[in-house]
Amino acid sequence: MKIADLKSAKGSTKKGKRVGRGVGSGHGKTSCKGHKGQKARSGGTKGPGFEGGQMPLQRRLPKRGFKNRFKIEYAIINIKDVSKLDGIEVITPDDLYERGIIKNLKDGLKVLGNGEIKRPFTIRAHAFSASALAKIAAAGGKAEVI
């Protein structure tokens, strides 16, 4: 059997209704739309959310809050997590991502000052908290803003 030999079962398919092809077709003149009224007009259906003139739900509900489109959302990491990395002198966001310490870099990396530093190192990030800068400097390390 070939694809060309396949046929639909008898009665399973039907020809589409051809409307507006003259009175003799049985679907002429008004094209099965009846006389006048909203549904007889072109473009006569209302969009989703239309409630027959009643105030739609999306307009009845109150608007709440504000979403700042320009907010910078940082991936955060604490000093205690950075100090666990041994054998790396210069720590970058890519290093942290490769090791699975941060899952998503978002708009940048911010280093917070929770924890203690045991050794000096250089860390490159997009932002630092004041306490993180103080702890890095006290340990003899450097904080570089990317």
Characterise this structure.
The chain has a domain at 75-145: Ribosomal Protein L15, Chain: K, domain 2. The strands form two sheets. It has a three-stranded parallel beta sheet. The longest helix has 9 residues, at 130-138. It has helices spanning 57-60, 79-83, 93-98, 130-138, and strands spanning 75-78, 90-91, 109-112, 122-125, 127-128, 142-145. The protein is an alpha/beta fold.
Number of distinct helices: 4
Beginning-to-end CA distance, first to last residue? 67 Å
* CATH architectural label of the domain at 75-145: Ribosomal Protein L15, Chain: K, domain 2
Q: How many beta-strand segments?
A: 6
The coarse overall form would be elongated
Strand order of the largest sheet: 1-3-5
β-strand amount: 5-15%
The value of Rg in angstroms is 34 Å
Helix content: 10-25%
Order of helices and strands: HEHEHEEEHE
Overall pLDDT: 90
